[in-house]
Write a structure and sequence with these properties.
Chain lengths: ~250, ~550, ~160
């Protein structure tokens, strides 16, 4: 593996303009090294997100193998069109995000702000659609775990309530309640990541408005972009697993 | 006997710098907002040693209670059964999450790694400070869980007990969650640092083996820790919302919790041991004045240990209800994971062969490690073997095994590293005589405490039991006596280390004759580590005689 | 959205031997094409969900395959992995690989469990009396094995929950 070289001249008090950049951190030798390192750091964080959500995917997969009939039926209780709409919204927001990064990198301040704003709008649309979905679930009793009271199931569902206080019905199943527990956990955790993303995007937008980003320094836009794409990627997997199995 | 090797530079060539990282700025605020990896390392050191003290107190309490089957001393019952359960649970939680996982990465590695690779700091200094504050938050949360109610599930939080018992379990679980993120951020920082901030001339195979070991540790920290995060969240959600993923009454599978838990916790034990091994890889060549034997083998063994550690977790669940197929597969893979550890042990031993070995305190710890880690590692084999594990699992044999590898391995190596880098960190030398006394007491006390537990376990004494059959009492008693000798060793150590701080900071740059880059700067280092960017010009551990021009 | 703007003359004084910078002037078109393909794939996967491909597992496999293609496109082009230094792709790949190992080995257990039925139970030993000595030479050997006894007395008993224990 080749040595990562550290530019010795710029350490001594740089004639390269990068060491005068206000964002330059002095334990690095060049802005490029700083940028590359930040990217590695961000990707490492994204790997932790993959494993965090991945644990939930593994749990979902195992529960699906435990309750195949209930899970397949419970999939039909979800509104596929809304899920597809949200998928399209997030894919478009991913595109506006990468265009924002591209604009920052090519010194187009107005376009950067515009694309970031569009991304935030898409995020809010996503949350709005989710709100409609969740309210529909609440009305029909399709609630997680011990709160599940929906009655029109092929297999009778166990009555709602804590396990040690609720009389059980012979032959009842927990499959539907477990499905919706995972549904709310996974879409909920994903939704929390969207909200955090809105916060990050707003922060970057304000900085972009002040003209902070250019070809020489656009790292924060790039890194927030990477975060946003992972949020999109998680939904790319959530959507078929929850909405498209029947 | 002259056991302090003066720095290679002639006296007077490098004047002692007036300001170093300790006194460059003063005041508590400058420490609380520092971005200097060295200061963060010192703060971590104080923190983890405090945690070790707390966890150690719980351990002494547990051992005191176990001294007799009646759990009495001087006619008074020491604690009742529920208090006993809480004591060993807290001993485990504090020692695992607050001490042993963060100790070496947070304190010694934070301090030494950038110096070793010739860098000015870690890749993300603010993340480093955030990591430390998360650790502090985890400490506060763990201590409040003690105050909030009984946490008596064992540090393993097995369901369905943890999801149904009343008490402060969620707070303890969330403390572990926060500490997990502290660990992730530290690992993330080290990976980026090793990739990008090495000195000119330092390729991957020119790095000190300490860096290889810490890099491997960091990979595990980043990949495994998120899973314990989600596991603890799922456990708390199951308590609150009755999800039914782990509780059979609600249609769940308790063994699933164990899969989730051990997917992290087995790699976690490699987060614990790899830094210890990394330290031994430094101590052996320095105190044998000979280059390390099999550099590449040790480097590859470190990385393969990290990777293979991810696919052996089922060996904690052989009798939990796992399928026979999975049992056999996990058992076979566990035999595989023992091989890289063996490679390293042989390489360290061979490093000493025909070397000019001296027996300063750090080397005494390294030699203790060779013995105690060997015992710990070898006793893992009957636990990996299905037929014998059925009898030994959940007995004191397991307790003895993991204490031999974690304490006899990691803690002993940590103490070796602490004494090795003490002059670099503080600029003072401790009393060598008392250092050796303490090392011997620790070794004797440790072995007396835990060797008897192998016998207890193979004869049937179960773990986590409050009382026991009378025939086990003599061995329990010896074990408790051993814990007192161990504690004495630690108290003496605290005394002479603290006493050394009252001396003036006049340690030489390189008291041990080490060849790695941290010894090329002053003790203690200046705030930005080096006067000029060091360039690596020799192989690692180059102890060949230098031809003077 | 033009790709021509101020020339990127503000290039950093990159050290010799640094990674040659990818020409970004065509990127906007690349991103748009990627989006269009992603939207088409979304349409395909929604359409495919309505078709029954034999066993239910086939539907899952197809849906997840399309999802993986979409994820790969996002990673390669939106997240720039195709043009970045390889270390980033290795990190991303590593995350997925280890997640895969978690899934694989957990299913290895859960998928090969044998239910606890009397017909599956091996012959159980009779309980031995507690030994009065720990000396193995003086401890009597266990009694010979007896044939298996059924765990539940008769099939007419009520079902309810808790097959295990």
């Amino acid at each position: 593996m080749s040595t990562t070289s550290i530019d010795l001249e710029s350490h001594g008090g740089g004639h390269g303009h990068e060491v005068h950049d206000p964002h330059f951190q002095h334990h690095y030798s060049t802005m490029e090294q700083q940028f590359d390192t930040s990217k590695i750091g961000m990707w490492l964080f994204l790997a932790t997100e993959i494993l965090l959500f991945g644990g939930l995917f593994v749990g979902f997969g195992l529960m699906e193998s435990r309750y195949p009939r209930e899970f397949v039926e419970a999939h039909t209780y979800l509104q596929r069109s809304l899920g597809a709409l949200n998928t399209v919204v997030l894919l478009v927001s991913s595109w506006t995000m990468v265009m924002a990064v591209h604009s920052a990198r090519t010194n187009q301040r107005q376009k950067t702000v515009m694309f970031l704003a569009f991304t935030i709008v898409c995020a809010f649309i996503f949350l709005g659609v989710k709100y409609f979905e969740y309210s529909a679930k609440f009305e029909e009793g399709l609630l997680p775990a011990k709160y599940y009271w929906h009655k029109e199931n092929s297999i009778p569902a166990c009555p709602a309530g804590p396990a040690n206080q609720t009389p059980t019905v012979p032959g009842c199943t927990h499959g539907y309640a477990t499905f919706f527990a995972f549904y709310f956990m996974m879409t909920g955790l994903h939704g929390i990541h969207i909200v955090v993303g809105i916060g990050l995007l707003t922060w970057i937008l304000l900085r972009a408005k002040k003209g902070e980003f250019s070809h020489a320094y656009y790292t924060p836009v790039d890194l927030v972009g990477l975060y946003w794409h992972i949020v999109d990627m998680i939904w790319i997997y959530l959507f078929p697993l929850y909405y498209l199995i029947s | 006997m002259e056991h302090v090797v003066k720095s290679g530079a002639p006296v007077g060539e490098r004047p002692r710098p007036a300001k170093n990282y300790l006194n460059e700025t003063t005041g508590i605020w400058s420490w609380m907002t520092t971005l200097d990896h060295k200061r963060i390392g010192i703060m971590y050191l104080c923190g983890v040693l405090t945690a070790f003290f707390i966890g150690g107190m719980f351990a002494l309490l547990v051992r005191l209670s176990l001294m007799t089957p009646k759990h009495m001393i001087f006619g008074k019952v020491i604690m009742d059964a529920e208090q006993y359960n809480r004591a060993f649970t807290l001993h485990g939680i504090v020692m695992v999450f607050l001490f042993i996982i963060p100790a070496i990465p947070g304190s010694l590695t934070n301090f030494v790694l950038p110096l070793m690779i010739g860098a000015k700091d870690v890749a993300f200094p603010r993340l480093n400070l955030a990591s430390f504050y998360l650790w502090c938050l985890g400490l506060v949360m763990a201590l409040s869980s003690i105050a909030m109610g009984p946490v008596d599930t064992g540090w393993t939080f097995y369901t369905p007990y943890s999801t149904t018992t009343s008490g402060a379990v969620p707070m303890a679980a969330m403390a572990a969650f926060v500490l997990g993120f502290s660990s992730i951020f530290t690992g993330l920082n080290f990976i980026a640092t090793v990739h990008k901030l090495r000195a000119p001339g330092m390729g991957w195979f020119d790095m000190p083996l300490f860096v290889w070991g810490m890099y491997s540790t960091a990979v595990i920290q980043v990949l495994a820790t998120p899973v314990i995060g989600i596991t603890l969240v799922l456990m708390v959600l199951e308590r609150v919302f009755g999800i039914g993923i782990f509780d059979a009454r609600m249609g769940g599978d308790p063994v699933l919790f164990q899969h989730f838990f051990w997917f992290y916790s087995h790699p976690a034990v490699y987060i614990m041991i790899l830094p210890g091994m990394a330290i031994i890889s430094e101590l052996m060549p320095t105190f044998s004045r000979k280059t390390i034997f099999g550099y590449r083998a040790i480097a590859y063994a470190s990385v393969s240990l990290a990777l293979v550690s991810f696919i052996v977790w089922g060996h904690h669940m052989f009798v939990a209800g796992q399928s026979q197929v999975a049992n056999v597969v996990f058992s076979a893979l566990t035999f595989l994971v023992a091989i890289p550890s063996g490679v390293k042990m042989f390489n360290w031993l061979t490093t000493m062969y025909k070397g000019n070995v001296s027996f300063e305190t750090p080397m005494l710890y390294a030699l203790s490690f060779m013995i105690t880690f060997a015992i710990g590692g070898l006793t893992g084999i009957p636990l990996a073997t299905l037929a014998t594990d059925i009898h030994l699992t959940d007995t004191y044999f397991v307790v003895a095994h993991f204490h031999y590898v974690m304490m006899g391995g990691t803690v002993i190596a940590f103490l070796g590293g602490l004494h090795y880098w003490w002059p670099k960190m503080t600029g003072r030398m401790y009393s060598e005589t008392w250092g050796r006394v303490s090392a011997v007491l620790v070794f004797v006390g440790f072995n007396l405490t835990f060797l008897t537990q192998f016998i207890l376990g193979s004869r049937g004494m179960p773990r986590r039991y409050y009382n026991y059959l009378d025939q086990f009492q003599p061995l329990h008693m010896y074990s408790t006596f051993g814990s007192w000798i161990l504690a004495l060793g630690f108290f003496i150590m605290a005394a002479y280390l603290l006493a050394s701080l009252r001396k003036p900071a006049d340690a030489p740059d390189n008291p041990w004759g080490g060849t790695t880059m941290e010894w090329q700067t002053s003790s203690p280092p200046i705030a930005h580590n080096f006067d000029e960017q060091p360039v690596l010009e020799h192989e690692p551990y180059d102890y060949r005689p230098k031809v003077t021009a | 959205m033009s790709s021509h703007n101020e020339p990127t003359a503000t290039h950093t004084a990159a050290p010799a031997g640094a990674h040659h910078e990818h020409d970004i002037s065509h990127d906007a078109g690349l991103y748009l094409r990627t989006l269009i393909i992603l939207l088409i794939l979304t349409g395909i996967t929604v359409g495919a969900a309505g078709i029954q491909f034999g066993s239910g597992a086939a539907n899952v496999v197809i849906a997840l395959t399309i999802a993986t293609i979409k994820a790969t496109l996002v990673a390669l082009f939106f997240m720039h992995l195709a043009h970045d230094k390889p270390v980033n792709a290795i990190i991303a790949g590593g995350g997925f690989i280890f997640l895969g190992l978690f899934l694989l080995f957990t299913f290895l257990d859960v998928g090969t469990r044998v239910p606890l039925l009397p017909s599956n139970m091996p012959a159980m030993a009779q309980p031995t009396p507690t030994p009065t000595t720990l000396n193995p030479l003086l401890t009597p050997p266990p009694q010979p094995l007896a044939p298996a006894q059924p765990l539940v007395p008769a099939p007419a008993a009520a079902g309810g929950e808790g097959e295990h224990k």
